[in-house]
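Renewal narrative, Specific Aim 1. Our central claim is that a sequence can be written position by position from structural information alone. The example that follows is taken directly from our test logs and has not been curated for this report. It begins with the structure tokens describing the chain, in the order in which they were read.
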């Protein structure tokens, strides 16, 4: 195992570790948020349409009346009068209760399933029974039919939090976050390698083959790093801009390190060149380094 891990490049190892940590953190966060949500229960009551007691007169068209009137149960369950009657036992206002009521019609059966969601099993069951009673009292199928409940008590089940769903979402979020983190790190790493390769080619074209430190202006410690390099070289630092557009950045870097007048570069100078980042060709860097005195020492290239 150690031999196998030793063969993995350090940059890849860091990316894998960061991706793993990000994935675990996101997964745990989704899991905690999902499982700590307030519990929600659903009360269900089944309503069945049946023929009413026969009366004198022509035979009623029971089938036609039921087929036409039964779909109206969906709207009847959310009507103001029905919600007003059930609101006191549900713990919600009529408007809030209306958003928690649903009716499912079973085709070709005369059966409707009424569902009500509430914060407790007792509230959900009581609200479902109260709404069912109000719907029966509305006598929507009169005179040929009537509604009745199949059970005296409502069936109640816990519908939230759905633990299996929360666990599945947490796993999916963890994988997605880990993959995204790994992709971002790989993209940044690839961009950094491209910059390094472009600088290496530019220095080689200028005839500079000595090792040169590559830094980034965005690094908060870039001035300290440059100061250490200049002290190690034992020479006065000069910060040069590869293009006029980078003169301001070069001046800022020069102010943070032991630097003298930038107007001249002599044989005892430790040179720092500021160039653009994100370029595949560093022709300006090649030109700037190519005109340095032979005895001047290029100690660093800063990407801005």
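The sequence written for that structure reads:
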């Amino acid at each position: 195992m150690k031999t196998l891990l030793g063969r993995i490049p350090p940059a890849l190892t860091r990316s894998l570790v960061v991706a793993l940590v990000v994935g675990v953190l996101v997964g745990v966060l989704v899991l905690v948020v999902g499982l700590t949500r307030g519990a929600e229960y659903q009360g269900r009551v089944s309503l069945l349409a049946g023929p009413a007691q026969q009366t004198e007169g022509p035979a009623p068209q029971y089938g036609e009346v039921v087929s036409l009137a039964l779909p109206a149960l969906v709207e009847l369950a959310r009507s103001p009068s029905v919600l007003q009657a059930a609101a006191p036992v549900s713990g919600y206002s009529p408007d809030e209760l209306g958003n928690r009521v649903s009716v499912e019609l079973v085709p070709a059966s005369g059966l409707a399933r009424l569902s009500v969601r509430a914060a407790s099993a007792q509230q959900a069951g009581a609200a479902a029974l109260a709404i069912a009673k109000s719907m029966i009292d509305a006598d929507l199928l009169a005179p040929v039919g009537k509604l009745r409940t199949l059970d005296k008590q409502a069936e109640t089940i816990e519908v939230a939090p759905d633990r299996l769903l929360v666990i599945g979402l947490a796993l999916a979020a963890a994988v997605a976050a880990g993959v995204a983190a790994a992709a971002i790190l790989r993209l940044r790493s690839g961009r950094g390698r491209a910059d390094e390769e472009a600088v290496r080619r530019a220095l080689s074209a200028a005839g500079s083959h000595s090792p040169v430190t590559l830094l980034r202006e965005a690094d908060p410690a870039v001035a300290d790093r440059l100061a250490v390099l200049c002290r190690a070289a034992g020479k006065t630092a000069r910060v040069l801009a590869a293009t006029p557009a980078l003169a301001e950045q070069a001046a800022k870097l020069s102010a943070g390190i032991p630097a003298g007048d930038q107007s001249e570069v002599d044989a005892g100078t430790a040179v720092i060149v500021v160039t653009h980042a994100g370029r595949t060709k560093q022709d300006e860097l090649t030109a700037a380094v190519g005109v340095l005195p032979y005895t001047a020492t290029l100690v660093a290239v800063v990407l801005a």
